[in-house]
Structures are given as C-alpha cells and as structure tokens.
Here is the input.
Amino acid sequence: MKMKKTILSCLLALGFLSASAQDQQPKTEYVFNPHWYVQIQPVGLQHTLGEVDFGDLNSYNVQAAIGRQFSPVFGLRLAVNGWQSKAGSEINGDKYLWDWKYVAPSLDLTINLSNAFCGFNPNRVFNFGLFLGGGANIGFSNDNAADAKAAMGAKHGVNTLEYLWDGSKVRPFAQGGITADFKLSDAVSFGIELSANTLSDKYNSKNADNWDWYFNALAGVKINLGPTYTTRVIPAPEPEIRYVEKVVEKVVEVPAPVAAPVIEPIRRDVFFKINSFKIQDSEASKVKDIADYLNKYPNAKVVVTGYADAGTGNDRINDRLAAQRADAVVKALKEQYSIAADRISYDSKGARVQPFAENDMNRVSICIAE
Here is the structure.
C-alpha cells in the first residue's frame, strides 16, 4: 500500500513578476508656436448700401495685412484695405452714379473659433474664425460726386448731396467679419473673408440721417513666417507591476510500512527597526532558537529571507535594506553559533513581497529551519 504525502517544497518561493502592461503606445502632442504671418488678398468685391440697383454699387477691392498669432485662439493683424467705393441716386427715373478712391488701414483682433471649440490641431484642413477692429478710412478723388450733383441740379433743380466733400477726408470706421481658411501646407493657407464696415453719414456725400455702410468680400493667401507648432512625445505610462507569490507543491510517494519520526519545522520572525538591519536585543533570542534547532538536528537546514516595508523608501533602498537584514541573521548564525555555511540559505525580497498585512511588521527576516 502506498500513501501520498504532500510536501511543501518551498513555503516562500521566489516571486514571479506579472505586469499589467497593456499595449499602450507613446502619444504625440502638438505644441503651438507664436508666429508672424502676411496676408495678401488680391481678389475682392465691395458693395456699398444705397438706393440704386445692387449691381450699380459693386466695385473692386484689395487688402494686404501683417499679423501676429499669439495663441491658438487669439491674434492681432494690421491690415490695409482699399480701391474705390460707389454711391448713387435715382430722381424721376434718372439714375446718377459716382465713385471715389479710398485707403483704410485697420487694427483687428482675430479669433480662431475652430481652435477655441475643438482644440489646437495644426493638421486641421479647415479653420473658421472671426475678427473685430477698426481704423481710419482715407477718402479722396471725389470729383465724380461733384459732377453728379451738378447734373441733378441742372435737370431736376434739387440738391441731394448735402455732404459733398472734396480733397481728402479721414473718417474713423469700425468693422467685424468672419474668415474661412483652407490649409494648403504648414506655411500656406487659402482664405475667404467677409466683413461689414460702418462709418459716418458723410462718407458717400449724401445726407441719409444714418451711418454709411460698405461690405467687403476678399479672397487670398496667408503665409506663416516660421514654424507654427512643434511636437513632443509623451511616453506611455509605466505598466502597473504586481508581485505574486508562487507556491509549488510536490507529490512524493513513500513506502507505507516505513514510519519515520516527523520533525516539525521551526519558524522565527526577526523584526527590525525602521531603516535598520541591526538585530535588537529583544530579537536575539529568536536567532538562538534557530541555532538550537540546527544543533539538535544535524541534517536540518535553514532558509533566511529578508524583507523591507513598502510604506517607506524606494525599491533601490528597500532591496539593499532587505538583503542587509538577511545578512545580519546569517552572520549571527555563523559567527555566534558556529553554524556551517552549507546549512544556511538566504534570500531577500525588498518591498516587492509583503508577508504581513501590517506595514511595520514587514521590516523582518523570516527564518525557516527544517
């Protein structure tokens, strides 16, 4: 008859590492760079409000600007808009039209709404924005208005141009508008701009008892001067590491009739003070118990395992401290009690394995003799 006896081959085996590392990849983050830009809009159309047909009040318009983008959302630009404006009147079926030249420098606050609501993305193809600003409209070459006034007076005996001006006039104006930019490359984008401009009633020489208005539609390119962004790589998070004890069981068959005396193993836990590997007087008796057991049973051997608590220090410190605690017990067994070195095995776990639930109890060397 045979009986099976389960022998625990290692009560505290070497821990195996299990990492919860998922397939995480580094991330690339775009960092905005403040930068200058120039804007050229050679294709434009202006429409001024008036009493004649819509098509009679349209004229060619151009604009150039230089700007600074301070953040992904906000910037400033200095723009110069100009060419000509038109006005007209109709009296008893007769239509009278006139035009004049102007130049209008302005300072505008620009706002990138795409970045404001969707976040900065230099690879975005389309960006929508708006601008608000104002400046000075400098009008000149208003001779056609004088001719129109003379013609209306001669035929109809009326004067509809009460605010007729000549020479050059400077008038403040305010404007606001929207922009739509389409990225062509990191440096160049194609843009469309629509704006509404208002200024004093005297701009078109007519007395209408309200502000004069003109509207601009412009198209052109924006050229960024220098890099608009840089990239940086954010490393993937370090995997969470857990250390798990592995218990190995071995089944050994022994003959049933042989009854050998059972020698119980002995375990002693030698505790240390924080950040110390010196054996305290109160713990020295535990080392002596191990030595007495080894002297009583000449074939017995001892395994000494050092630990450190996870609540203090770091892995490098705790690895060293745990090894020193194991060495202190081994040295005492050899030097104080003359235990042969080949009967002593030792190991250290640092703070990676915590044999006790209470943090402070893990400052220990566990000695198991059998």
Observations:
- The two ends are 27 Å apart (CA to CA).
